[in-house]
Here is the input.
Amino acid sequence: WEREAEHFIAHSTYEKPRAAAFRFALDDFGMQARLLEKMVALRCAMFRLAYGDQGLLIPRRLYDQLGGYQRMALMEDVDLVRKIGWRRLSMMRARAVTSAERFKDEGYLRRSVRNLSILFLYALRVPVATLARLYG
Here is the structure.
């Protein structure tokens, strides 16, 4: 991942700064984890909607242009990625491995449905404080 990140940074231009996100991966060896990783890859391919747990590489100039992270209880990563926009977001080949604990504790299907529901409610402009309570 280091070489890929270095290459991305070295080839970013000052005039047209871009951001990048890593592929999503879970620290679980089960089939449900692999299926979820494939679904997230599909979401990223179709909508260029990466979450913060995928790691974001954002040049300082672009970060400042976007106003940085908004102070929010939840969805600050989605807010920032939306401001970046799909044209300025590249998906890396390297993976960012994140904890599968919530998925294992709640069940993969239940947690995935909850996450998608919260994303949908956020798109409908439900207050972030309400979303944070639902997220758990």
The beta strands are 19-26, 56-57, 89-98.
